[in-house]
């Protein structure tokens, strides 16, 4: 009995073990680092299966392109001025300080060597000895004299004497080279400070682009605005479609650029950007969105890059004043074309940021004696009734609606066949009548 009980216990334990093995067990995946999650196979996680959208131009306008394996780096040095201007501020300031410090130290060393080779260091305090530079008694004083010479401070304590021709030549060289260094470095800093890149920070684009009907036509729209009271002069807008394509010959063109017409032929691309404007692109046969419907849009891999350009009003006024002064001094050299510094603002919209069937919320209201812009509603949209078909399909439906309801190719062929049958029957009847008349005439003649 005890053996039977023991054997039954063993069987039950085995059954329970089998049930435990066959029962589904929920395994909680530990939270992995970002790099480990990216290295996991795509079939482990549905989110990993979704391909990350890679922008060509980021929302802040910076191009997401890195230049690698550039072997001809000497080309950057041939245009050293532009290279310095394009550097970041911390490197630019470091080079600015280093250039002046190195030149002061270099010429300070030469001044000290001249004094040392002439023996001025051995006659310090000797009133009967005429040194090259008065009151120069070491390298520190030579360094200070170099700073005073190049920056034209002139404290009056250390001065060069007329008994030192090599010192006079060095003074001329340092003065000329110092002027060149000043012109180059100050000019570089002035250009970098006056660059209108920060002006683009107050030129804003809507977060999303929308597609809806406008004047009976399907249009792609986005909104631009200027937050400053000083306006952009001669502002213009452009748009590019970035999409890879394959030619008929099988050539693959990555990131192919296609122009999107935003009013180039009508002049609507030239803006008077005082208040926010909605830029519209009519989707017609020349549009790259001609065959794209609402259902097909999320499947497309495309990016719309918008570029707003114009001249900064403050720099335009400054340049105009300088040009006016130049015209007064040199009338024959005048071109009559004032121009300020060009400012460019960029943004982009990927497929997920294009809303089908939406419009922008109005932001301009009429107040007591002025117009007010509410930038809280600048990015807001609202849904509107919009066909889900592509512009091509809408055009085909419109063309069919303009024709008779019975119109079709088969019905037209049937109409032609019926007309031909009726004509043949008529011709047969006429022929029979003629034959009958001829037979009657012959009978009458025989009688």
TrEMBL record:
Major location (coarse): membrane
Any one annotated GO CC term: plasma membrane
Ion transport keyword on record: yes
Keywords: Ion channel, Ion transport, Membrane, Phosphoprotein, Potassium, Potassium transport, Transmembrane, Transmembrane helix, Transport, Voltage-gated channel
Single biological process term from Gene Ontology: potassium ion import across plasma membrane
Family, as annotated: Belongs to the inward rectifier-type potassium channel (TC 1.A.2.1) family. KCNJ6 subfamily.
Protein name: G protein-activated inward rectifier potassium channel 2
Gene: KCNJ6
């Amino acid at each position: 009995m005890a053996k039977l009980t023991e054997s039954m216990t063993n069987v039950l334990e085995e059954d329970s073990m089998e049930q435990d093995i066959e029962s589904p067990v929920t395994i909680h995946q530990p939270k992995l680092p970002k790099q480990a999650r990216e290295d996991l196979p795509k079939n482990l996680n549905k989110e990993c299966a979704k391909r990350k959208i890679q922008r060509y131009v980021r929302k802040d306008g910076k191009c997401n392109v890195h230049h690698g394996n550039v072997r001809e780096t000497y080309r950057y040095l041939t245009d050293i001025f532009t290279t310095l201007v394009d550097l970041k501020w911390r490197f630019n300031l470091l080079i600015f300080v280093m250039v002046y410090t190195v030149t002061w130290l270099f010429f300070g060393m030469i001044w000290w060597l001249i004094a040392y080779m002439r023996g001025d260091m051995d006659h310090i305090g000797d009133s009967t000895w005429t040194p090259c530079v008065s009151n120069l008694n070491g390298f520190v004083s030579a360094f200070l004299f170099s700073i005073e010479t190049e920056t034209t401070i002139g404290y009056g304590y250390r001065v060069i004497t007329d008994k030192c021709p090599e010192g006079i030549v060095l003074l001329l060289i340092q003065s000329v080279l110092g002027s060149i260094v000043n012109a180059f470095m100050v000019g570089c800093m002035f250009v970098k400070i006056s660059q209108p890149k920060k002006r683009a920070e107050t030129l804003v684009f809507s977060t999303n682009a929308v597609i809806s009907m406008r004047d009976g036509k399907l249009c792609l729209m986005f909104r631009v605005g200027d937050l400053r009271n000083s306006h952009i002069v001669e502002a213009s807008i452009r748009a590019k479609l970035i999409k890879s394509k394959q030619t008929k010959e099988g050539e693959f063109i990555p990131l192919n650029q296609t122009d999107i017409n935003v009013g180039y032929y009508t002049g609507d691309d030239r803006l008077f950007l005082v208040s926010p404007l909605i830029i519209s692109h009519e989707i017609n046969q020349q549009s790259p969105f001609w065959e794209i419907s609402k259902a097909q849009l999320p499947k497309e891999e495309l990016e719309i890059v918008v570029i707003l350009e114009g001249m900064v009003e403050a720099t335009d006024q400054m340049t105009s004043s300088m040009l006016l002064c130049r015209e007064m001094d040199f009338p024959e050299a005048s071109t009559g074309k004032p121009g300020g510094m060009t400012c460019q603002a960029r943004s982009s919209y990927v497929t997920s940021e294009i809303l089908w069937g939406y419009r922008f919320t109005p932001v301009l209201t009429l107040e007591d004696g002025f117009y007010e812009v509410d930038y809280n509603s600048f990015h807001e949209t609202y849904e509107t009734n919009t066909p889900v078909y592509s512009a091509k399909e809408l055009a085909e439906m419109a063309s069919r609606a303009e024709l008779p309801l019975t119109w079709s190719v088969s019905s037209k062929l049937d109409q032609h066949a019926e007309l031909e049958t009726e004509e043949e029957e008529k011709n047969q009847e006429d022929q029979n009548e003629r034959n009958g008349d001829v037979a009657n005439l012959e009978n009458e003649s025989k009688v």
